[in-house]
């Protein structure tokens, strides 16, 4: 019984991987639609709001669902309202393409996304924008410095348990010969169907009372362990990585964190069996120390009551000056902020300026 269940699980899983690719074959140039934020990359799930498919449909996906095939009507619609009709965007301006097996000559240059109003920064599209181009981690200036080194910490490949939520942790050592600053992190995602978030923790000086083996994953809770509770790196769905503000970094090494813990959160709501994962994180560090040590402070509550049938619910929380005085003794500069909304949030990204420092707010739909 178990065996056949697991077989079904795998089938469904493979099926959902294939679904958006199967749709790609139903529209002209379906596998060549450029990503509006990065023209060298393609947008895989053309009808979806997320590049990798899944999630909600975009305006083109909604129109496609009406016809379930490429035809003249769908071709002549301008789903995203940017002034180019779908056929023009997808390289079939004469609306003659039928299937991928035709020899219809498609234009393969000057393609654009039929579900996203482009150019994104035009006044027309800003009004309709639902996509924001978060700067890619690959543009992080620190990655281009010659003194930046990296280590990749990955979970050894393990079975993902048949349960909704699993936290797994792995202890490892940072280089300890001198002080370094971590200046960027980049996720290494092995199985994107289960990866929900990755946290990197710094461990206090003595980790003697941690009984787990180094480099052997163990089941953990929301924090890796009482000794490894300082968050120094975050990845969550929708992020391409993290780039520290150029005047700060997380101190590791001789006088900083010498040991770290990687925590991954697997999400398996459909209780599939037989999936594996070996995700992790690449950590970029440098001996060229920045002016400030960085830290991450997590505040908030576990529960928010959303009253029914309200268009708008405002929840405020505050940390009184008496309280923050105890928490923060020195002057600090805020370089970025994240809203972590679990299943309820929608991704958005809003840089604001504060203390002459750009502050980035992310809503993570993790
Ligand atoms: C691309 O298409 C747009 C709109 O259809 C057109 O104005 C532009 O000239 C085209 N660019 C090239 C390089 O063909
Ligand atoms: C990590 O460093 C190695 C050696 O310098 C380099 O070859 C590799 O590309 C780096 N990895 C990443 C992800 O940048
Ligand atoms: C740091 O970034 C700011 C812009 O945010 C820039 O003006 C400055 O030159 C950068 N400093 C270094 C050392 O790269």
From TrEMBL:
Residue ranges constituting the Copper type II ascorbate-dependent monooxygenase N-terminal domain according to the UniProt record: 152-271
InterPro entries associated with the record: Cu2_ascorb_mOase_N, Cu2_ascorb_mOase_N_sf, DBH-like, PHM/PNGase_F_dom_sf, S-S_Temptin
Gene3D superfamilies in UniProt: Copper type II, ascorbate-dependent monooxygenase, N-terminal domain
Entry keyword annotation includes Oxidoreductase: yes
Pfam family, one: Cu2_monooxygen
Residues annotated as domain Temptin Cys/Cys disulfide: 18-116
Keywords annotated in UniProt: Monooxygenase, Oxidoreductase, Signal
GO MF annotation list: copper ion binding; dopamine beta-monooxygenase activity
EC identifiers of the protein: 1.14.17.1
Signal peptide: 1-19
Name used for this protein in its record: Dopamine beta-monooxygenase
């Amino acid at each position: 019984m178990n065996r056949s269940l697991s077989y079904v699980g795998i089938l469904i899983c493979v099926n959902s991987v294939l679904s958006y690719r199967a749709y790609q074959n139903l529209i002209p140039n379906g596998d060549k639609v450029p990503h509006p934020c990065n023209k060298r990359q393609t947008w895989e799930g053309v009808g979806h709001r997320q590049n990798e498919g899944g999630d909600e449909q975009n305006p083109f996906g909604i129109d496609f669902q009406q016809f379930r095939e490429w035809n003249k009507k769908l071709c002549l619609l301008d789903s995203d309202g940017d002034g180019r009709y779908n056929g023009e965007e997808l390289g079939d301006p004469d609306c003659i393409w039928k299937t991928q097996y035709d020899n219809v000559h498609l234009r393969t240059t000057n393609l654009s996304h039929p579900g996203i109003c482009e150019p994104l920064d035009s006044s027309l599209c800003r009004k309709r924008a639902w996509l924001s181009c978060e700067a890619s981690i690959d543009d992080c200036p620190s990655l281009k410095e010659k003194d930046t080194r990296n280590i990749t910490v990955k979970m050894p490949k393990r079975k993902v348990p048949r349960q909704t939520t699993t936290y797994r942790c792995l202890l490892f050592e940072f280089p300890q010969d001198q002080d370094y600053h971590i200046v960027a992190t980049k996720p290494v995602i092995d199985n994107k169907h289960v990866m929900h978030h990755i946290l990197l923790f710094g461990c206090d000086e003595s980790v003697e009372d941690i009984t787990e083996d180094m480099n052997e994953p163990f089941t953990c809770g929301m924090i890796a362990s009482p000794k490894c509770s300082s968050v120094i790196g975050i990845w969550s769905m929708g992020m391409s990585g993290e780039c520290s503000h150029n005047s700060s970094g997380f101190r590791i090494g001789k006088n900083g964190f010498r040991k770290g813990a990687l925590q991954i959160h697997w999400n398996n709501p459909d209780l599939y069996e037989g999936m594996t994962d070996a995700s992790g994180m690449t950590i970029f560090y440098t001996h060229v120390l920045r002016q400030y040590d960085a830290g991450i402070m997590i505040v908030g509550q576990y529960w928010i009551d959303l009253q029914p049938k309200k268009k708008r619910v405002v929840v405020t929380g505050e940390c009184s000056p008496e309280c923050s005085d105890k928490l923060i003794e020195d002057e600090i500069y805020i370089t970025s902020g994240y809203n972590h909304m679990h299943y309820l949030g929608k991704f958005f990204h809003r840089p604001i300026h504060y203390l002459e420092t750009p502050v980035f707010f992310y809503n993570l739909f993790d």
